Amino acid sequence: MGKICTILKSQILSHKAFLLYGIISVFVTLIDVLTCRICEIWISSVTANTVGVITGFVIQYFLTARHVYNKNNIKSFIVFLWTFFVGLIFANSIVYVFRTFVFSGSDSSLAFLVSKGFSIVLPFFLMYFLRKKFMPVANNN
User: Are 120 and 37 in contact (CB under 8 A)?
Assistant: First the structure.
């Protein structure tokens, strides 16, 4: 049991930035999904997705700049903003394809959950690795 704990602790420490990024992303995702679902009452699904993602971006930037990348300067903001736009385009494309083609314009909860789910998971990995490449953790500089 002691060896398992040692291995687990080692893995957590070696992947700390990714785990923190994941925890922050889960929190931001909850805010994003709630915002998006509420906005769909008044606006289109792609526009509502954009509002949710932008809301999440603002919160995620401040949390990850402080707790994951340990950088809070203009260069880190530019990298974060650039990767955000890449992720936003990717996420909105996913929502559009799912809602327009896969679910044929359906406004059902299933259509919302599936399209939103894919638009969260796939860009999560893309943005994490882009940000890691262009904005490394402070101790890797």
Answer: no
